[in-house]
# Entry
Amino acid sequence: MSETVIKCESVYKIFGENAKKMLEESNGNVDAKSFQEKGCIVGVNNASFEVAKGEMLVVMGLSGSGKSTLLRCISRLTDATGGKIFIEGQDLLELNNKELIELRRNKMGMVFQSFALLPHKTVVENIAFPLQIKGTNTEESISRAMEMVKLVGLDGRENYFPRELSGGQQQRVGIARSLAVEPDIWFLDEPFSALDPLIRREMQDEFLRLQEKLQKTIMFITHDFDEALKLADRIAIMKDGIIEQLDTPANIVLNPATEYVRKFTEEVPREKVLIIEDVMDASSKNDLGDLKVSKDEIIENVAEKILTQEKLVGVVDSNNNIVGSIKPSKIIDTVFGGRKNGS
Amino acid sequence: MEYLKKYPKLFQWLFLLIVFFALCFAIDVPETYKFIRGQAEFVKDPNQSVYFFLGKEVRYYAFDVFWRLPPLLGWLPIWINDSLFFLMNEWMPMEFWNEDTQEFKTRPILLQISRNLTAFMTFLIELIREILLGGLETIVAFTSWDFIDAYPWLELPGLPWTIVAAGAAILSYKLSGKGLALFAGLTMIYISIFGQWKPSMQTLSFILVAAPLSFIFGLGLGIAAYKSKRVEKALYPILLVMQTMPQYAVLVPALVLFGVGDHAAVIITMVVAVPPMILLTILGLRAIPPEVIEAGKMSGCTNWQLMLKVLIPTARRDILIGVNQVIMVCFSMAVISAFIGAKGLGFNLLLALNQLNIGLALEAGLCISLIAILLDKMSLAWANKQTDYFGNLTFFQRNKNVIFFAASFVIGIILAYVGTFIFKGSFNYLFEIPHNKGISTADFWNKGVDWIFDTFFVYIKAFNTWLIQDVLQPMRALYLRMPAVATLVLAVGAGYLIGGIRSALVVAALTLFIALSPWWDRALVTLYMATFGVVISCLIGFTVGTLCFQNKKSAAFMLGVCDIFQTFPSFVYLIPVMMLFGITDTSVLIAVIVYATIPATRYTIEGLRSVPVGLHEAATMSGVNKFQRLTKIEFPLAFPHMMLGLNQTIVFALFMVIIGAFIGTEDLGQYILKALSDKNGAGIGLTLGICVAFIGLIFDNLIRTWVGKRKKHLGID
# Structure
């Protein structure tokens, strides 16, 4: 297990007067309804999780589920009402203002749904902004910003103002800005939600490419379940401030923990999400046919090959050792089974 | 009954009007009241009923109270005077070290503060003034008069006008480009060769102190109010009153606190210019999307960096409007503060108007307006300036502006030196063209005015007579005929119908204040003039705005015209109307109409513009023609914004009516003007100002409440 970068222990965020007092009185047993009657709104309710170095945790939930609030607690844009948050072992809530600023200047980057670019600065100035805030001199910050401009593919537009760019281009600036200081932790708050579907897909691919290269620790917020499946190492599904389930995409699809989560998974094309390893039978390794498939293949890619077989199909790891087997009928089961009414 | 249910509001309004008129007819003018002073107000006969209560004389008003409320607030001006006097001369005496006499002296603390403040302001103004015009006060401030006596050559020589002109042009070029540079150069040359150099530079030095200080204070207080709810709550009522307070009215208290001269003018200008700056700063900061603030925080901004590099630049648009307002107010005040002894163009303008030398007034007015426009454009260009990081510039390219300025500096000095040989014994025109020694077109304009008068006298006179006798006087009589109680009922009723109990109470309080002051009748006269101006302004403004809106180019052009007209100091408007109509109420009203038409037009265009394009298309697809689209879609949606325009129109009209007192109207403004020369005028001036402000605030409250509700109803922000 690699080292933990972000660690949350029973984080609460409750809006309203006397929130702190009410939380103490409730002994960690927060009921959103009874709180609402007393004029408090529960944003985040008892969130505990860890994010490892280089891991991408996608927090998924519908609007009002508290996902953005959770992110703002971890970036300390708002102060959590209760619980503890550790960033690389540092207690975030104990930091004074100066230390917090240091942390943000060097460790954190954030991308916003509405891009949040500074309207009076050009593309390159926007990207250089966090560097200049840190005190980097003009020449160095601009040349570094130009590298970022190239990284996100905006060369030639560095002197444009945000108002002169399309939504996708603006978000590229937002991404470049958040990466300019080379942060270890990268927060993305619904970065692609304001974009139209084609651009969104293009940006997702671009984002995966970047992450491949940079290997940041990421918290990614989205309301789009497909996006979550596509990007995530692990997904946290939130509802009414509570994390309903936190697991890998495959496990969420295969074993939804609650009714609420299951509703999301119903429409998901499993063959596109699951890999062979998720559905194979690790116990039986005998009586195999000729065909061997890698355990990391996505089902969709090998389904046709497997379905033409009559015998068990062997599953191998990267070293070509057999780690399990899969029945052709299991493929049909996976793709069509487990859904209500077969729809 | 059906109708009553369908349009209940309409019937409520009708009912209110019926009550109002019934009261008007029912309450007769009491016999003891008589018209006096050119029929401007009623005065109670001294033979009123008097009786004694506990040995004290009590005046008995009884029934008359319905007609006019007793001036119960008559003590207020006197009280203000006394308190001011007490604060200045007796409150908290302290020992202060006196440089001149080298001993401690006991002085009230406020007096000391005021003296220090004025000394500081005087120093700032003198410093800039002496750079532009020459002098030795600044050097004296750092040394002493003895020092100057010992070294008589020590004197700031003042810049030759050629250098200032070149400097202004180069700065404009750096900020904006050739167009503005040309404008700046021509303006300076015009000022110089028309012999307005000295007063212009005096005015400029006044502005260069007043405008930046107002900007800084306004921005600072705006930020403070944005950060702290408590500060905002404390500031808000003051801001509201100051927004509608006529600039005249603050002159007198300033006179008492800070004496006479440029320094008092600067302080009073700040008092007037800071409130709109504060309001616009708050407005701009509030409108920043929260994510931008978060982005700033996540970039690791300290609080200062967040404010200076994220918040203020993002709120730039509104803050710039604030700067524009500050500059506008500063130039307005540059003229008005001539009443309390500020030097410069304003003083010349007032003098010329007083002597009815329209030509001279026109030249001075044009100078002020040109400088105002120039500064406005320069400030705008400065805020929008961009940096080029990638141009591989040579040393010369990077510093060419400095080099050019240095060159023109040297050339200017050489020219001025050469000038001493050319113009031996007379004035050195290459150094500074003295006042009234330049070209003057005053005679031309004066002859023109005479010609207009000779040629059109009959018509102008006929128009004048008709307007005054058949329109204005009956209107004024009608307004004065309104019983106080009826007016109160009307105002409070309107407040209740528009905004419920809260509005009704606010309006009642404001109206009562005016009704209980000794100047109710004057307030009615002010109201009548303002109403007349506002009605006509709105008619013109809405029509012109609607017509211009039909075409994108003409709309943009009209907004530009509004911008420029708005930059003119309010006093300048009096010049052309006096040219045509002489010293009559007609002149004032026409000035009011011209001035108040600006916001009416602007808001109409802006309102119509803000109608979403989607709705246009939806309407077109429903098959409406242009006229239907205007009446069914655009007007209803633009109406709330247009009503805000009405609000501004009322404020502008009130300002101009009060300034019109300079020509000789018989409203509240006349008394404010009188208070200027009154030893105890501070209280009177301030109370009168508050009365005018309250008239504005009554309408402000009603309109804003209505607009707020309407916008909510229409679902537009």
In short: Residues 9 and 697 of chain B are 23 Å apart (CA to CA). The radius of gyration of chain B is 28 Å.
